[in-house]
Amino acid sequence: MSEVRTAPEIFDVSGRTAVVTGASSGIGERAALVLAAGGARVVAVARRQERLDDLARRDSRVVCVTGDVGVPGDRARAIEAAGGAVDVLVNNAATGGSVSTDDEDADAFAEVLGLNLVAAYDLSRRAAAVAGREGLSIINVASVLGIVTGAPVGGAAYAASKAGLLGLTRELAGQWARRSVRCNALVPGWFRTEMTAELFADESATAWVHRNTLLRRSGDVAELDGALLFLASGASSFCTGQSIVVDGGWTAR
Prior knowledge:
Layout: H1 7-10, E1 17-21, H2 26-37, E2 41-46, H3 49-58, E3 62-66, H4 72-80, E4 88-91, H5 106-128, E5 136-141, H6 156-176, E6 181-188, H7 197-200, H8 203-211, H9 225-232, E7 243-246
């Protein structure tokens, strides 16, 4: 029987190198700080330099790369900044697109998929090529809107990109398992972030979210910390191809 470990030992990420995209706000910012607090060296990638500078001031283990992961060259720079080995990749960068399908033409649809799905795929390939000594944990940040419709809120491109991310998670897990690369998805429900600020500024929309969530409230990004550390650490060493849903019961209705 294996030795019994303490919780800090089970969820330990110290000494690991993590790349987190979309790190200038919301879930990405929180993920970068949580991994850094756990002892990881974090390469935080985002477009807004001033936000990244603030992030770096908050924890010296955060290294910032200003760039747009929708651009192949910026994706390459993000992985190169890890210094030759990546232990954890958090594909979080995303755009919401249009809420109304009638307002979203094919070009706009493709643009959303390019950032939300294609960029995650390319970053995963690049990270897998320089996986750390003990392998690589890829964490794709999806959404409940990739599982169920969020109409009248959501959008076709966003939903399609997040559903595609869930499928990509399973396929990469199958393709790369023999290379000690694990790939799982973190699937948030309705959280108060910069992306959802407009929705939660509307009382009727907020009431709609609360009414349709079993716990009758929206989530706080801190409530993703445990699932994130589980997937990033050795705690999930026998977990791949899975989707960890943290949604207050939204998809259980």
